[in-house]
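Much of what follows relies on a compact textual record of a protein's fold. The record below shows the convention in full:
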Amino acid sequence: MSEDIRTGGCQCGAVRFRIRGKLGRPSICHCRMSQQQFASFFSALVTAPQDGVEWVREEPSYFQSSVNIERGFCARCGTPLSYRHPGGLELAIGSFDDRSDLAPQRQVNYTSRVPWVESIFEATIHQDTGFYARQ
């Protein structure tokens, strides 16, 4: 029987992880704290298996964003990496080396989404500039 092994890390490579075991359901979170942690429209996270994460280089630094929540990041480059809560650890989907099978399957705190978040994916990308423009 083969074991699932996944790897990933931050942008500068200082923090690296290896995961053994099955990942949970990938999701995006629209809450304001997630928007701020990722400086984006939402966070994209997947649940790590309990006791399945090994930090193979440095470990993330943590910011306690509320009573029971810690948000992990690389202290060197600032890459957001994790969301630690009493129920376990979620890892940023963008930090995985292979993200091809981690499409979010649910949206959390949907009522807190920015109003235009759905329509941005309807925009076309101009190949010459990379800027978005409406058709």
Q: What stands out?
A: The longest helix spans residues 32-38. DSSP finds one helix and twelve strands in the chain. The helical segments are 32-38.
